[in-house]
TrEMBL record:
Domain of life: Eukaryota
UniProt cross-references to PANTHER family, sorted A to Z: PINORESINOL REDUCTASE 1-RELATED (PTHR43349:SF4), PINORESINOL REDUCTASE-RELATED (PTHR43349)
Official protein name in the record: NmrA-like domain-containing protein
Protein family membership: Belongs to the NmrA-type oxidoreductase family. Isoflavone reductase subfamily.
Any Gene Ontology biological process: lignan biosynthetic process
Amino acid sequence: MEKSKVLVVGGTGFVGRRIVVASLALGYPTFVLMRPEISLDVDKVQALLSFKAQGARLVEASLDDRARLVAAVRQVDVVVSALSGTHHRSQTVLLQHKLVEAIKEAGNIKELLMLLIFLSVAPVADPSELLR
């Protein structure tokens, strides 16, 4: 049986890096979303290069570019979103929403694991609203 292809969004963050490493170690074909603006962060670029050297496939797409995001999603069976709360919470939720909309449009995803990771412990609005 062929293993599912996994796309990790937020793969250069604290949690996302560990997800990418685990996915690769378990032998899943692993794709990592590489956002164009990431080139400004040397640490994240180094993480991406390390993932590529370990066999991950880097897929360039912005969460603000619906067509490229849908194209990235169509290459896989499973999406893991580890976008973090380094943005304002409302911005993170908006980015997650854009990802969900791209997944709906692509129409091929078997599983979605969405981690809502925030740096504060303040309550957030019901995240299930994103899935409607």
